[in-house]
């Protein structure tokens, strides 16, 4: 360990890269594991939950951590790639301790935990040494007073709390990318997951749902009130919402579609009308669509929208009125790479790629993949027999439908052996035995 005293706060550790001795990043910090036994003695920090290849969560013992600073965590490089499984004697600081209601014994003040400090003791062990507590807001004050106190000066950290809030855990999740937040929610205990889902804004919950496995999506949606479930579905991209609704019981699906805004529900119903794994079923019905009088400057302004995926922002689709799908006559695609070479005041219609063939909604997933590969595209228009634009299939839409279930775990397993042998050779020792995770 580093010779200088180190104190770090758990919430600030989340997302930090984990490096091996060679300076290669091997993962990211996702949580802190501690053994909480009493409220009078500082709990020993057992290790970190690290996220490695394919969002696989592993246990990183503190005995393998050589240094922690403001921007990264360094390890010996000798890590066990076995999937992390929480034991009954362990507590996750981020997942289970934030938002717990506690009382400061010296003053009688009650509040919720919003962070916990890790510190090295004299025996070189890491312990949870301080607790950051926030009082409830009073009057017009949006936030209550905050206190940072010693672990032993707080009551309530070992007590099981049935109605634990999620404000500060949600704040931590909001700082993550949707895919990372989804993975963390997937790993939370059921009661904490329910509290987080209740506290997330509809738009953020929609982003997270799109990144979760189907079984998690269905479970979460089924526990929401119908009105909120419909609001969340409206915030999702129509193709993802259609896939999710298709997994629900027919009566539930019908009820939620009836509660959605008519325009949003119409897009979803249209996507659900196509055969599964066809261009029509996997397309996005809301690409960037412009009229023939739009300028290059207009096109560039539209694709600057940070909510667009890179594949959707790679090109615009020029059509005659109406500009909502299904549109008027489809005129062609304007690739942003070419538009960047044109004068901003020139018309997009003068720089269209009219040569590539379009997709038909009934085309199979293999035909779509062959089309994108043949023309080196990241997206392609889907057009009906009358020449109306119905939507666009992007390469990420295609991959979502082509990759097998559990592909992330398969990827991490295939790399696990290679990385373990690399780390072992770099450290000059054999890899940690696969049977345990404490070595």
From TrEMBL:
<dbReference type="InterPro" id="IPR006669">
    <property type="entry name" value="MgtE_transporter"/>
</dbReference>
<dbReference type="InterPro" id="IPR027275">
    <property type="entry name" value="PRC-brl_dom"/>
</dbReference>
<dbReference type="Pfam" id="PF05239">
    <property type="entry name" value="PRC"/>
</dbReference>
<dbReference type="InterPro" id="IPR058838">
    <property type="entry name" value="SH3_actinomycetes"/>
</dbReference>
<dbReference type="InterPro" id="IPR000644">
    <property type="entry name" value="CBS_dom"/>
</dbReference>
<dbReference type="Pfam" id="PF26205">
    <property type="entry name" value="SH3_actinomycetes"/>
</dbReference>
<keyword id="KW-0282">Flagellum</keyword>
<dbReference type="InterPro" id="IPR011033">
    <property type="entry name" value="PRC_barrel-like_sf"/>
</dbReference>
<keyword id="KW-0966">Cell projection</keyword>
<feature type="domain" description="CBS">
    <location>
        <begin position="352"/>
        <end position="410"/>
    </location>
</feature>
<dbReference type="Pfam" id="PF00571">
    <property type="entry name" value="CBS"/>
</dbReference>
<feature type="compositionally biased region" description="Low complexity">
    <location>
        <begin position="410"/>
        <end position="430"/>
    </location>
</feature>
<keyword id="KW-0969">Cilium</keyword>
<keyword id="KW-0129">CBS domain</keyword>
<dbReference type="GO" id="GO:0016020">
    <property type="term" value="C:membrane"/>
</dbReference>
<feature type="region of interest" description="Disordered">
    <location>
        <begin position="410"/>
        <end position="439"/>
    </location>
</feature>
<dbReference type="InterPro" id="IPR046342">
    <property type="entry name" value="CBS_dom_sf"/>
</dbReference>
<protein>
    <submittedName>
        <fullName>Flagellar motility protein MotE (MotC chaperone)/sporulation protein YlmC with PRC-barrel domain</fullName>
    </submittedName>
</protein>
<dbReference type="InterPro" id="IPR038076">
    <property type="entry name" value="MgtE_N_sf"/>
</dbReference>
<dbReference type="Pfam" id="PF03448">
    <property type="entry name" value="MgtE_N"/>
</dbReference>
<feature type="domain" description="CBS">
    <location>
        <begin position="283"/>
        <end position="350"/>
    </location>
</feature>
<dbReference type="GO" id="GO:0015095">
    <property type="term" value="F:magnesium ion transmembrane transporter activity"/>
</dbReference>
<dbReference type="InterPro" id="IPR006668">
    <property type="entry name" value="Mg_transptr_MgtE_intracell_dom"/>
</dbReference>
């Amino acid at each position: 360990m580093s010779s200088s005293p180190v104190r770090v706060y758990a919430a600030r550790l989340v997302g930090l890269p984990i490096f091996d001795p060679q300076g290669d990043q091997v993962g990211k910090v996702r949580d802190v594991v501690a053994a909480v036994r009493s409220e009078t003695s500082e709990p020993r920090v057992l290790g970190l939950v690290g996220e490695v290849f394919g969002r696989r969560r592993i246990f990183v013992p503190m005995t393998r951590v050589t240094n922690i600073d403001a921007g990264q965590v360094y390890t010996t490089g000798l890590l066990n790639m076995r999937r992390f499984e929480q034991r009954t004697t362990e507590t996750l600081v981020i997942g289970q301790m934030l938002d717990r209601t506690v009382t400061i014994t010296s003053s009688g003040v009650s509040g919720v935990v919003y962070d916990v400090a890790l510190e090295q003791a004299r025996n070189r062990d890491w312990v949870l040494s301080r607790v950051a507590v926030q009082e409830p807001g009073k009057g017009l004050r949006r936030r209550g007073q905050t206190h940072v106190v010693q672990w032993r000066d707080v009551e309530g950290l070992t007590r099981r709390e049935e109605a634990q809030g999620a404000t500060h855990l949600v704040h931590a999740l909001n700082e993550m990318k949707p895919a990372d937040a989804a993975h963390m929610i997937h790993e939370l205990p059921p009661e904490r997951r329910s509290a987080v889902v209740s506290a997330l804004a509809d738009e953020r919950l929609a982003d997270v749902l799109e990144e979760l496995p189907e079984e998690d999506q269905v479970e979460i949606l089924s526990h929401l009130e119908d009105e909120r479930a419909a609001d969340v579905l409206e915030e999702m991209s129509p193709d993802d919402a259609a896939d999710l609704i298709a997994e629900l019981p027919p009566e539930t699906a019908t009820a939620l579609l009836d509660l959605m805004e008519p325009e949003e529900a119409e897009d979803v119903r249209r996507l659900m009308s196509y055969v599964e794994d066809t261009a029509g079923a996997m397309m996005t019905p809301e690409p960037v669509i412009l009229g023939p009088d739009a300028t290059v400057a207009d096109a560039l302004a539209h694709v600057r929208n940070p909510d667009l995926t890179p594949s959707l922002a790679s090109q615009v689709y020029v059509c005659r009125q109406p500009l909502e799908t299904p549109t008027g006559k489809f005129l062609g695609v304007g690739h942003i790479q070419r538009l960047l070479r044109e004068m901003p005041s020139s018309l997009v219609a003068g720089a269209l790629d009219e040569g590539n063939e379009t997709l038909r909604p009934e085309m199979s997933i293999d035909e779509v993949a062959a089309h994108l590969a043949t023309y080196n595209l990241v997206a392609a228009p889907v057009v009906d027999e009358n020449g109306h634009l119905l939507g666009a299939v992007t390469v990420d839409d295609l991959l979502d439908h082509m990759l097998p279930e559990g592909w992330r775990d398969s990827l991490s397993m295939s790399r696990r052996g290679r990385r373990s042998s690399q780390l072992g050779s770099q450290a000059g020792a054999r890899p940690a035995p696969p049977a345990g995770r404490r070595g």
